[in-house]
Amino acid sequence: MIRIALVDDDTNFHIICSRYVREFFHANNRMHELRLYSSPEMVIYDLKEGRDSDVYFLDVEMPGMNGFELAEKIREHSPEACLIFLTSHTELAMEGRVEYDEIIYLYREKKYAVLVLQDRQVHVRKPLRVVFEELDSENFMFIERGFVVNIEHILRLADRDLTMRNGDVLPVGRTYLKTVKRMLLHFWKDRI
């Protein structure tokens, strides 16, 4: 049985979304339990009592605590839960999107790939290799087993250290050095 939590301060949305969830699970002949929450505090209370869910639909804008802040609390108690953000505001939906050229570099941190941007870091619950393949861009390259860089953000290569546009200095693995030099040369040759 799949446990689903719908967190939204709009009771009309509860009615609409509940109907879609019931129809989906009925059509697919699957058992489910749907919990409706009108505030983030109610979710946190249930988490502390051991009543977690498999899937959380979170309204982005709620009084007191927004959906992103609630997601952090949920992750502390239920790291495997699927989080889906809902909003009627397109500008908020775009906040979660990252453009390729914004990514300075990526690194591996346990089960996460961490995207380092100029103003923030974004954690993606996928292996670094998978995120690298999903980027599918010639501007990204491995420089070490746990690091991928965006060539556009490299300022300098000195010995085996790459200085990135944000000031971070990253080590280039010995086995990657020749490939890194070749790709940098190719990248800059095409732009000069």
From TrEMBL:
It comes from the Bacteria. GO terms for molecular function: DNA binding; phosphorelay response regulator activity. Residues 3-123 form the Response regulatory domain. Keywords: Phosphoprotein. Residues 98-186 form the HTH LytTR-type domain. InterPro entries: CheY-like_superfamily, LytR-like, LytTR_DNA-bd_dom, Sig_transdc_resp-reg_receiver. May play the central regulatory role in sporulation. It may be an element of the effector pathway responsible for the activation of sporulation genes in response to nutritional stress. Spo0A may act in concert with spo0H (a sigma factor) to control the expression of some genes that are critical to the sporulation process. This is Stage 0 sporulation protein A homolog. It comes from Eisenbergiella porci.
